[in-house]
Amino acid sequence: MLSWGIPALLLATMVNQLPIISAFVPTEPVYVYLGTQLPQGGWSSILACMLGAWIGAQASFWLGRLAGARVLARMDAAPGAMARARRLFMRRGAPFVVLAQLIWPIATLSQVLAGAWGMRPLTYLAVSALGAVLAVAQYVAIGYATARGLAVFGLEPGDSLLIWLSPYWVLIGLAAILLLGTALILRQTRHALSIRIAYSVVLALAMFVAVNLGTLTARVEAVERVAPVPLATACRALDETLVARTGETPLHEAQPVNLALIGFDNPARLLESLGWLRNRTYARGDLEPLEILVLTLRGLPPASSLLLKGIATDLAWQEERGAVPRTQLRLWPVAMPEGAPAVQLASVGRIDAVTLRLQGRVPVLAYDLFPYTDTARNREAEVITSAVPGVRWRLAGPATRAESDWQFESDGRIAVLTAPGAPDLATLCEGVAR
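== Membrane protein DedA with SNARE-associated domain ==
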């Protein structure tokens, strides 16, 4: 269920059925989001939306019945369209009302017309119930089908469909479209066609965002995979390039594990002292859509699940506020024998673009990693070394470049930072099978 709860869903869907103001409370994206959640349940929320749509339809009906002429004059519908609608209503009253509720530009108008043109209240109670169920169900079906069925078009996971190199300009463009749509709605007497175009664009974009949010929040048992990385896995970084791959939340491409901290008992305190900011993650506990939006607007977007040999981490930081560009660091604690110094593996990368790509069967907005990851790795190694007296660092691992089919370019090595008095990673790995 959404964070604002059943009562808010009821209220929003009731208001969405009222003439004029319905345009300012579009609930269709909510229905689409609920459709993406169907495999995890959410039927109570969907039923609440259907009930709210039905109750709101009654309010519109009685507005039309009690003050039909004044309400219709305020809605300022085109005379030709009104004449065609009246002919359809007279011939096919009940089917007309049901089908009209499925079409958002005329849904509330049809409800007012049913009252103004004398449909019996009991008849309207029945036909509007069917219309409300179908109206909500069609958007729920869109969300469900989009989240489950895009593969029939032959699109493969990870296909890059579009890259937005300047996402801030995209946000400015969306805001401009929203303002234009609102302005045209307020001046609907002159720009009926423009209203429909602007409102349709905004509504379609909102539904796309709803599908993305639904994909990010519909995860399966990621909590069980949060655990320390075995020491043997950490030691393999001396022989091969370890790569953290995307989990259920497809916000990032795979990225190299390119940093190791040896002997740092409290890496969180170290990063905070350097000014780094902690990110919420999807790896430990669900994040709801409202939380995702709020955190992103605050410049601290949630960090997606990255898996190292199937193990997720809930430890993520970014260097400064902002969504793009930003430098982000992930930490995987390593399971160490009693008495051994603390070891953490890390992946440092700079996010510098937003990409529209497919993950499984769903088109999602994802972050693009700056391909030259060695630059971010060496920079942060130098920053930490300068900030903590006695820390030393060196490059370790294979002297061969990472595979070329990944989305990044790297020398494939790992920067090992060793605290004063701590042994080197190679020393810790002596005698460990890897």
